[in-house]
């Protein structure tokens, strides 16, 4: 059973070129399914078995998002088995994804973002690094995984842009704002050499041990600054990504451009922000229409 799941994971990495995080999630979903049917191979399960599994996942307290992803994992897994000739009929094919409401993401006001960006102590090398990371994250809308994966060669500070590899190994070019360029340039000249300790690391953002920054490490850094400046909202690295998109749209950016900068493959993912466009259109109508 484990060998089948391992083969599936290899297929996702090699053939589908999915990110490590996505592959890990799909692998976890299939092992969760296997744990429900310990005495039966996954190849023997039918449609009703999968329905019962999804119901069991819901009853166990898993979020609706996790259950929906588990269904996607099942569909991908059994499609893979059929392609490989391991099964004749796909039991997940007729299962339908539950309709889910899209929860608007938490975001930060401009004033809160300013407080957060000003929080690092620029007298210290880690502080200059932290300011640069925060400026890049807010100035580009990168995912935290993309931020920590940046190499020095991914940035062109003179031209004001960076290259990043997003989900599905898709490269995109994203403009850097002036403040982000200044912060990164300052970090590279005055702080990064002290953190690198002569190791000549290829990663842009380094820990105090001279290694590449980790997701967990950056999360802790962000959390400390959120507490320092007294922001009481629940803030994660993704919150700055949402703030990036929200503030762009509030100032007139179109949804398609924001989609490209966020690296969303499907415009429907970006459409969670359409409420911002609707609010702006309403405001413009109220301000300029003669009958408003």
TrEMBL record:
Coiled-coil portions: none
NCBIfam families per record: PRK00283.1, recomb_XerA_Arch, recomb_XerD
Core-binding (CB) domain location: 1-82
Domain Tyr recombinase stretches: 103-286
GO CC terms of this entry: cytoplasm
InterPro entries per record: CB, DNA_brk_join_enz, Integrase-like_cat_sf, Integrase_catalytic, Integrase_recombinase_N, Integrase_SAM-like_N, Recomb_XerD, Tyrosine_recombinase_XerC/XerD
Function description: Site-specific tyrosine recombinase, which acts by catalyzing the cutting and rejoining of the recombining DNA molecules. The XerC-XerD complex is essential to convert dimers of the bacterial chromosome into monomers to permit their segregation at cell division. It also contributes to the segregational stability of plasmids.
Record's subcellular location: Cytoplasm
Protein's UniProt name: Tyrosine recombinase XerD
Keyword vocabulary terms for this entry: Cell cycle, Cell division, Chromosome partition, Cytoplasm, DNA integration, DNA recombination, DNA-binding
Complex and partners: Forms a cyclic heterotetrameric complex composed of two molecules of XerC and two molecules of XerD.
């Amino acid at each position: 059973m484990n060998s089948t799941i391992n083969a599936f994971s290899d297929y996702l990495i090699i053939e589908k070129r999915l990110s490590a995080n996505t592959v890990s999630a799909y692998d976890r979903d299939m092992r969760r399914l296997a744990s429900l049917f310990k005495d039966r191979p996954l190849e023997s399960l039918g449609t009703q078995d999968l329905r019962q599994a999804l119901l069991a996942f819901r009853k166990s307290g898993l979020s609706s998002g996790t259950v929906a992803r588990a269904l996607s994992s099942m569909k991908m897994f059994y499609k893979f088995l059929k392609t490989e000739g391991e099964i004749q009929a796909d039991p997940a094919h007729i299962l339908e994804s539950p309709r889910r409401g899209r929860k608007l993401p938490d975001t930060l006001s401009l004033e809160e973002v300013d407080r957060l960006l000003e929080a690092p102590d620029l007298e210290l090398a880690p502080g200059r690094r932290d300011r640069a990371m925060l400026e890049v994250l807010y100035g580009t809308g990168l995912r935290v995984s993309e931020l920590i994966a940046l190499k020095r060669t991914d940035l062109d500070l003179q031209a004001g842009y960076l290259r990043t590899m997003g989900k599905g190994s898709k490269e995109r070019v994203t403009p850097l704002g002036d403040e982000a360029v200044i912060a990164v340039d300052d970090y590279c000249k005055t702080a990064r050499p002290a953190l690198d300790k002569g190791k000549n690391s290829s990663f842009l953002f380094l820990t105090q041990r001279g290694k590449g920054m980790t997701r967990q490490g950056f999360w802790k850094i962000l959390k400390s600054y959120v507490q320092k400046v007294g922001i009481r909202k629940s803030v994660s690295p993704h919150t700055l990504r949402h703030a990036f998109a929200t503030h762009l749209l509030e100032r007139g950016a179109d949804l398609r451009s924001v989609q490209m900068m966020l690296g969303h493959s499907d415009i429907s993912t970006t459409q969670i922000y359409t409420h911002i466009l609707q609010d702006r259109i309403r405001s413009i109508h109220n301000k300029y229409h003669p009958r408003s």
